[in-house]
Structure formats: C-alpha cells, structure tokens
Amino acid sequence: MVLLQRPHILLLLIGTHQFLQCWIAFGSVNEEGQKQEEFSEELLLKPLPDHKLLAHFHFQSSGPPSTSNGCHHHLFPKAISQLVQKFRIKEMELSFTKGRWNYESWGGFDPLSSSNAKPPGVELWAVFDVPQHHIDASWKNLTHTLSGLFCASINFLESTATYSTPEWSFPPASGNVRYGTLPCEAVCTENLTPWLKLLPCRDKAGIALLLDRPSLYRGFYHSQQLHLTSTGSSSEGIDSGIILEQTLTVVLQPNSEMAIEVHASEKHIQPSWSLSSIFGKQVSGRCVLAKPSSVYLLLDRGLSAANGLTSENFWSNPSFELSANPDRIFLEESSSHSKSLSILYMFQVEKYCESEPFDIGLMWKVPVAWLCQQTPLHASRFLMGSGNERAAIAISLKSTQFTEGFMSANSKDGSCELRVDVFQVVPWYVKVYFHSLRVFVDQQPRAVSDIIEKIHVSPSKDKMSPGVMEVVLKLPCRVNTAALTIEFDKGFLRIDEYLPDANQGFDIPSAIISFPNFHASMVFLEDDSLNKSPLLSKFQEKCPVMSYTEVLLVPLTTPDFSMPYNVITITCTVFALYFGSLLNVLQRRVAEEERFLKAKAAKKTGRLPLLLSKLSAKLRGSGINQN
Amino acid sequence: MAETKEKSLSDEKPKPRVRPIVRLGIFLISHSFLVSIVCCTAGVLALFLLPVLAKNTYISENALMPGSASPMLSNQHVSDGNRLVKDLTNPNSKSSETGIESHKIIAQYMLDLGAEVSFHKFHPQMNQFHPLHFFSSPVSGKIQENYSCSSYGINTVGIIRAPRGDGKEAIVLVTPYNALKSGFGEALSLGIAYSVFSLLTQVTWLAKDIIWLVADSQYGEYAAVAAWLREYQTPKFSSLSTPNAEMCPDVNNLFELKGHSISGSKFSNSFRRAGTMAAALVLKVRDQNEQFEDTISIYAEASNGQMPNLDLINVVNYLAVHRQGLRVNVEKLWPLLNSSWLKSLGEIFESLAKVAKSLYPKWKFGIPATEYVEGTATLASSLYYQALGVPTGPHGAFRDYQVDAITLEISPKFSLDKVWRNDILLRGGRLIEGVIRSVNNLLEKFHQSFFLYLLTSPSKFVSVGVYMIAFALLIAPLPMVAASLYVDANSSSNCSKGDSSTPSAITDTDEHGIAIRSWRWLNSAKLVFIVHLWGAIVSLLPYFISQIPDCSPTTSFMIWVLLSILSLLTLNSVLASPLACAKATQEKEWALVKSVTISSVFIGLGLMSVINFATAEIGALLMVPMCLLARPLKLDVRAGTLRSFCRLICNLVLGHIAFPPAAFFLLKGMLDGFGNANVGDFWMWVESLWAWNSATYLFIGMVQLPCWVLCVSILFHTC
C-alpha cells in the first residue's frame, strides 16, 4: 500500500507544483497587466548664460496600487509609502535649498526654473485627503515624520504660528493644502544622505554616482526636492498608487580655477566642461533597476537662437563640440510666441559600462552670449524704513523686455491685462496693517480697488497663526513698474520666543509671485518615445510660471540677554527694600512713641539726675537679681 | 542713638527719631556749600582722570575672529586695482565735462568682474532748518521742485551676490569720488576698493552680499551717501516726488552706452538692492601727507554723538596694527598736545601712581605723562565731536539707519612711486579684506560690544560706566544746593517775620502765612518758565531769519540778537514783568530764583545726558559753576571781604564765558587763534548745527541760554 501510494503522492506533488508554477506565472502576468513598480533616473544638463552649468537630476519611482503584495515593495521606498498611507497625502512637496536662484540670468519662464527654483531653506506643502478637522493633526504628524526622515528641523513647522493655509493663490489650489517654510534652515549632506537612501541604487550605481558631495555643495545653487503624488482612487487610501519624484537641481561653475587666469579677451567664451570635470566622477553604467536611464543636454531657445541653430542645421553645429555622440536629438515643437526652438540631446547610459564609462563634455569654440527667458515681471522684495518701531514691506515688479512678445500676442483684443498673484505669509511678530496697502503702477499711486481684483487676508494672531495675504493684481500689459507696499509694526517677543541668534533678526519668508496667464511648458516632437521618459513628460505638463522673492531679515528689538541676571538682582533689591520698610512700618507704634517722648518731656530732668536714676535702677535691678 | 538722645536733651524739646536716610539728606543740605565744592572738584578731577582709567579695547564678539584667516589679496588683484587707477588718472578720461566718462570706466570694470551694476542719480538736497524734525527719523520726504539737469550726481553701485548666501544681509563699501576734480588720493581709494572687490568676486567664503558704492562727491560726500541710503531705505514709488533725472540728456547717454555690453542682464538702470546692511566702511586716501609713517585715521562720530559699535573699531585697529603694520590714528585736539599744564598734570598722576605702586605693588594704574597728554587730547576731541552732534564723515548717514559704519582715511607716507603705490594698495586692500571677512563671519548684527564710549587712543576706551561718574559728580550738588537755598529762603523769611511778632503766636496765627510763603517759589518758577519759553522762541527764530534772502551771516546774527532781545523785553513786559517783581520785603527772592534755576538746569542736564552725553558734560562744566556761584553782585560788593571779592570776580568771568557765543569764540580762538574770528562765524556754526539736526542746538537754545540769562539776572539783582 505504502509502495503503491508513493507514486500518487509524487504525482500529487508534481501536480501541485505545476499548478503553483502556473499560478505564479498567472500572477506575474496579472501584475504586468496592472503596472509594475518603476524607477527612472535622468540627468539634464543645461548651460547657463553666465558661464555656469545647471545640472538637474530627476529620479522617479512609481509604486502602483498594490493589493496583491500588501505592504511590500520591490523598488519603491517603504518609508514613503507608509507615510502616504498613514497621513493620506494626496500631494506633497518638500524642498531643501541653499543659495538663491538668479531669475535674471538663469531664467524663470521654462518648466525647469518655475518648478525647481525654490526659496532658501526648507519649503514644505502638502495636500491631505482627510476630513477638514483632521488636517492640522495630520500636518503635525507629517512634519515630525519628515523631520526624522530627513534629519532637518522640519518639526518646527508643527506650531500653528509657522504654517498657513493658502486659500486659492497657491498653485495646487485646494482647501486642504498646508504650506510652511523655514527660511533659515541650513542644508547640507546630512539632508542629502537620507534622500539618497530612498533611491534603489543609492549613489552606488547609475547617474546618482555623480553626486559627489564636495562638488555639489561648491555650487551656486542647490535644491533638493521630494515630490509625492498619489494617484488612483484615493478614497480607500490603501490601494492608491504613488509617484515619488526626487529631483536635485544644482548650478555649478565649470572649472572655476581656470577662469581666473583667462584673459579679458577670452572672458566671453563660455567655459568648456565635462561630467568628470564638474563632478569629478563618471557614470559607469546605469542602475540596473532603472528603466530609462538617460542624460540630456538642453540648449534653450535663447542659446539655440544665438548659435543660429534651426531645425535644419543642428547636426552640423560649428559653435560647440560634444565629446560623445547623442543617441537622439529632440526638437521643440514650434510654438506661436517664439521663433527659436530648444534642442535636446539625449544620451543613453545603458550603452556604457565599467570599462567604458560615460562622460559627456562640451567644448565651446566661439563666444556665445544669450539670455534666458524670463518671467513677465521681475519681482523683488525689500524692507523700507528705519528704526525699531515701524517699517514696510515693498514688492516691486519690473517688466522684463523679453516677454513683450507674449504681451503683444496676448493683447489681440484691446483690453490686455496681466494677472499677477501674490502670496505672502508674514510671521505674527511682524504686525502688518492691511489697510496700509498701497499700489503704484508706473510710478503713479493707484487706488487699490482699481488694480487688485481679489484679495484674501487672514490677519495674524499673536503666537497663534501667521498673517496671510493673497492678492490678485490686474495690471495693464504695458506696465513698466509696479509696486506694492504694506506697513507693519515690529512686535515684542517674550524672552523665550527669541531664536538662538536673536540679534541676527527675524526672517520673513519669501513671497510667491505667480502668473496664472502664462504657462511654462516644453513640448518636444517625436512623442511616441517620450512616454517612457518621466522628465520629458513632466516638461510637457503646463505648469504656471511663478517666482519666489528674496527672504527678508527684519531686525527686531532684542533684550539684553544677560538681563535675567540683572532682573533677578534688581527684583531682589526691590523686594528687600519693600519688605524692610513694610516691616519697619508695621512694627512701629507711632502713638506709643509719641507718648514715650511726651513722658520724657514731662520728666525734664537734667543729665546728672538721669544718670543717677539709671544707675540706681541698675543697682536695684542687680540687687533684685541677687535676692 | 546716643547722639539723638544728647540732641533731644540739649534741645529741651524732644523730637521724634528721624530716619537715617532723611538725616543724611538734611546733613548734606545743611552742608551744601562744602558738598558742592567737593563734588565739583571731584567731578573735574574725575574727568581728567579718565585717560588714566581707560581700559584696553578687546574684541568682544567671538564670531568676528579678525586676522584668523590669512589674507587672500594677491599681487594680481593689486595690479587690477592699479589698472583702474591708471585709467582714471588718464587725462583722456577727464575730457567730459560732467565726468561721466570716469563713471563709465568704473561701471565697466565692475561689470567685467561679473558684478551687478547700476547707476543712481540724485539731486543734492539743501540742508534746511526744520524746527520739528529733530530726532525724527530721516524718512522726512524733503521735496524740492526746482530740479534742474545741471545739478545731479551719479553714484555707481556694484553688488556682488554671495554665491551660497541667502542674500539677507549686505556689507557696504563706500569710496567717495569726485569725477570732476579728483585727486590722486581718490583714484587710489577706488583702486584699493576695486582690488578688494575683484578678490571678493572669486572667494567662496562670502555669506553676505557686498555693495560697493562709488559716491559722487561733487556735492559733498555725505550728501551722496545720504541720497543713496534714502533711496535704498525709503524709496519713493510715485514720480511726483522723484526728480525726473531721466529726462536729462547726459544721463540717457550714460545708459545707452552701457546697454550694448555683453552681459547686458547684469546692468540695469533701476535701483538695485541687497539685504539688510550689517556694516559699512567708508574708504578714503588722503592726497598729501606730512607724516613719516603710513597711518590710517578712524572717524566714527555720527550725528548726535552716536558711535558705531566698538567692535568695528577694534577690528580695524587690530588688523591695521597687528597685520598690516599701519599706524592707527583717532582724531586729536592738537593744541592740547603742547600744553604744559596738561603735561605737568600727567606727571603728577604718574608720580602718584609710582607712590601707590611702591605702597602696594598690585596698584598699577599709572600711565606715562606723554601718553596721558595724548590720551587727554584724544578724549577731548572725542568729547568735542560727540558734543557737536555733527557727523565727522559720510559714515554718519549710515548711523541714521542703525547701521554701524566708520570712515577710514589712509594717509600714505610719500607719494608717486610705483612700488610705494603697490604697497599701499596691497596693505590697504588687505586691511579692507580682513575687515569685510570679519564682518562676514558675524552671525548676528553688532551688539556685543559698547555703543556708549569715549576713545582715548585707538586701542583704549572709557566706557559709559566710568565716564558717567564724572558727570554725576558734577551735577550731584545741584539738587542739594537748590534744596538748601529753598530751605534757607523759607526759614530766613520765617525768622524775620517771627522777630517782629511774638514767638508764642507763631504756631496758630502764621499757619496761613507759612502756607502762602511756602508757595512763594511759584513766583520764581514762573520767571524761570518764561525765560525758558523765551529760549524756545530764540531757538525757533533762525528758521524765520534763514528765510530772508541774501543775508550775510553777520547780519543774520545781528538780526537774531536784536530779535532775541526784543522778544525778551516784550515777554518781560507782557507777562507781569517778573524780573522787576523783587520787592523790598522779599529780600531773599534771588535765592528762590536761583534755587528754581538750578533745579531746571539739573533737569535739563539730566535729560541731555541721555540724548548726547558729551554735550551734557561740556555744558555741565560751564553751567554748574556758574549756577552755583551766582549771587547778586551788590551783596558781594557790600560785604567787601576777600572771599566775596573772589566770588565777584569768578561770577563776572563765568558770566562772560557761559554765554554761548562767547564760549564759541573762546573755543574757536583756542583752536584756530583769535586772529580771524568773525561775528558771522557763530551764525554759520549754528546753521551747521541745525542742518545736521544736532540736539546740541536745542540744548544751547533751551537750557544753556535761559540758564545764562537767569544767572545774569541774579547777578544784577537789586536787593
């Protein structure tokens, strides 16, 4: 029986195994049908007009809605998916920035700058998918979690005095958005390392290999971002897909040590560079988990126009030389408002390996000068006034000649208007008087109601919430300059509310100036292949043009911080004097004293009798004692 | 206890025990004569002791770390600077009448370095007397209608953005430059600034933006810097108030030529800003110099005796002396250096210190006599310039916006040698670089060190805690003397009344009379008030006089004097002739007047010491002896003793010296010699005081002059 039964079991086993295999195969097919977790790594290089180079790293991981494998992931960072599930985040963006984006020379109109130019310090905004009354709690927990994840003091955004609720002017307009910034947060490697940990290959392989810390932080601008989007039916929360975009934008100076020696005549020639000269490293192949792994070189409209590049002759270009042959070249789809087109050279990293590392270089042959496309109005913000009592914030908008083409294009019908949204958060100790808002257009004072179409103001509450001002300005298209001023009082703080370096002053976070009429997008031809590249498809999205203003430093009155000691000594003195005199008064009996004096006066004895009487009293007293 | 008992016994009538503090007060008041002599001498002595008591300066803010980094300014930068100096002194560049060429050269040099450049046009503003603008912030929009294209200045501004900074703060470097008639010194100062600027475009340690302002000094250095600061801090957005300098052809020309520059985006004709200013340095190079060493002079006094933080001076001093081997100078009153009495005083202090040291070796407070004389001269000039309330250089404009600033004036030893020029460029540049680097290190604004101090040498200072003592000693007798005079006046009249009536009736019948008599001081107070009112009127008069066109200073002064006398007479007659109300019965009237005068002087000096200490100190030196000594001349003549004769002489001398114009001419004569004294000078001086919004002017008009008038009226009191 036993012998007989054995083959049966064997058969059964084989059968089940086959069935299992079948099932597994079926499962994988099922998964492919759904969508797999994907990871892409891309690097975009763009020469900038002021002899600098922009490098934009873009890593995207997407976690599809996964009911099948529960909370396990192949590529997608678990920490992030847990975060999204826990706090029901619909969208979130966290950026760490050091340095300032130079809107004038690096441009502000292309998708690259309008989504990657960030204010200095930390900026965090998040849209939650929870009921209205839970949002604040979720935000607080989120700030703490992120602070732990990224080794930053994001947890300071927890207090209600630091974050705000933009109503409609903040681009991802939604009622559930929370926005907070920490302008004086220092950004360094300790923030980059946890960020790199989220990548499947870390910085051990692929494009991320280029992230050499010293060369990164030597740059002029450094912004590290994390963008999260939940896709799909998010109401259940669990089975929503997540797209995690990690971008790092750096502006570097190629071979700066050589630039010093260059003579004045050669100063105008752009410095030549290569990946190895900028980052000191080369790419030795792709990260095996990355699906598209490519490097792009972008020549923007101004540059290609300056080079005389057109759709015909971009192959045989005389003004520069590339050290590697591009795999593909994309041309921008011609748009209505500019004649010149951006050109994108694509290099695939997959072809390269350890023995033959990828290193692209660009050699300029002739001096080229061009200008980047700028925002319609250049915004700058500054403080006015002097003294410790009152001051004013001024936002000045100046038209850049570059966009006149757009203006005329937009102003086909006679009444042309330029819409500008201003979003300004001020901390509570800057007590803004909203009634003192003044508008000047082309150096003429104008009535606020003429220019401001819509305004939303939430005044600050002391130690509770910051003041928020959202304004929609309608300016005439031909405007040259416009200015917005608003006065404020400098508040007094309690001694424990001062920051560690109180004498430095207090920061007013950047204002956001956005131009909803304008959209920055770059659409490249040959769409079929582009679907694979998340970076290029991101460029195709229409994102509103916006720019951040400078962070302001308001010097507030600060106490002498050695004062607690002085206060203690002076209060002690005052108390001692007070209690001393009080006790003195209480102890004293005025009536009795007077009676005593009167009695003395009544006696009116001379000195000798008094002495005698005293002596006798003493003698008598001693006598009594002796007795 | 024993004393009181004794007293009560001896007085027959027992008195309740008096609190010790009250007893002390009574004691001081009863001995006010002695106390006032002791206090005044001690006060003057303490003032002369200040150079001995001065402490060595030290860098209080640790973040400054001056000289911790080795200077990076190399010969490359120096030769860059030299190139600019050559281009500027080149005669071709001066062909243009308006000096626009040299501005263009400077702007082009800045652009080549990659800095952001802009021109700032301004119209020089006439300093006018605004009676109510003392102490007001400099926001006051002084609008002038009649701007013309012929008179405007152009400031060239270059800004380096710190590559990794957040742009919240900025450091300002100012070089005054007159394009029309620039000396070699000015060109050299531009060369130094340029070499530093060219270095700073390359360095990586920059955390604050650097602004280099080439201030067009053809209408005065201060005016140019003040105009730029006004535009920086309180711009006018509406065109109604801004002069339309753009319409002038020259200015347009300036911009057009710049427009075609290759890095066009770096240049703009709009006003450019950086963040909050952390500190400012004004750099000048003197043309001729007769000194044997390379010296650098520091000017720090801003309006109304405000000083920059001591740390800024310390950093400059430290770097100049210990790193660059330059000699550092602070302003001195030169006549004092040769005075023999000061020298002998110094010798006395020195020998005293020696004696003290021999008694107890740990007492080391003596300084050599020569050092003492120099310290006193520096201290006196420090006091003088603070008291004047007029800034000693363009740095004063920054202080109005709470920015710490100093002027550095480099005086090179000999001139026109290439090696020498490179040397001064290198050392000056390294000094500026070091200071900028130190300020750049600062995380907070200057707050650590002193703001209230007097310098006795570049490396020695007297802090407020020490110099306040001299002033406090000087004015301490004032309330005591006032009280004793008041008590005396009351009691003496009491006595005189009491003599006439029977002593037993004093208690009940004269209750009412005493009450009236104790309010008698109100009469004197009225007089004092009227005189002070007159003082206010006198200090307002120049506003109206200055409106009279084509008036020479001498005539203006005469008009002022006449109007003042006239107003005094009218006030006197209108308000019940208070000066003449001294009746024969109130023979001690003058004592009450003196008492109230002294109290008012005390209040005035006390208030002034808060606003501008140096003015109060000098004022106290003049007024306290005069107030204390004032006594009707008649009484002294009648007494005829030696003591009263001395007092008479003192009174007469003080009565002359303390009169503000007399004091001015005396001081001027002491400093410049009496030869060229002119009556109009006083008017000019007063004009400069109000033009700079100096509180000293108010002090002279509303405290010193009324006090002098009251004292003189006491002197000539008929009793």
Largest sheet of chain B: 8 strands, mixed
Beta fraction of the residues of chain B? Answer: 5-15%
Terminal-residue CA separation of chain B:
43 Å
Structural class of chain A: alpha+beta
CA distance, first residue to last residue of chain A:
132 Å
Pfam families (chain A): Gpi16
Organism (chain A): Gossypium mustelinum (Cotton)
Keywords (chain A): Membrane, Signal, Transmembrane, Transmembrane helix
InterPro entries (chain A): PIG-T
What does this protein look like?
Chain A is α+β, with helices and mostly antiparallel strands and 627 residues long. Chain A folds into 2 domains: 43-260 and 267-364, no CATH class; 377-525 and 534-561, Immunoglobulin-like (Sandwich). Chain A is 29% helix and 30% strand. In chain A, the strands form 5 sheets. Chain A has an 11-stranded mixed beta sheet with strand order 5-6-4-3-7-8-2-1-10-13-12. A 5-stranded antiparallel beta sheet of chain A has the order 15-16-22-18-19. In chain A, strands 20-21-17-24-25 form a 5-stranded antiparallel beta sheet. In chain A, a hairpin with a 5-residue loop joins strand 1 and strand 2 (53-63). The radius of gyration of chain A is 36 Å and the shape is elongated. Chain A starts with a helix and ends with a helix. Mean pLDDT of chain A is 81; it is low at 9-33, 256-265 and 623-627. Chain B is α/β, with parallel strands linked by helices. Chain B folds into 3 domains: 28-52 and 466-491 and 515-576 and 586-716, no CATH class; 71-90 and 97-125 and 152-234 and 266-331 and 392-445, Aminopeptidase (3-Layer(aba) Sandwich), CATH 3.40.630.10; 333-387, no CATH class. Helix content of chain B is 56%, strand content 10%. Chain B has an 8-stranded mixed beta sheet, with helices on both faces. Chain B has a 3-stranded antiparallel beta sheet with strand order 1-11-10. In chain B, strand 4, helix 6 and strand 5 form a beta-alpha-beta unit. In chain B, helix 3 (32-53) runs antiparallel to helix 15 (464-475). Chain B is globular, with a radius of gyration of 31 Å. The two termini of chain B are 43 Å apart. Classes of the chains: A alpha+beta (627), B alpha/beta (719).
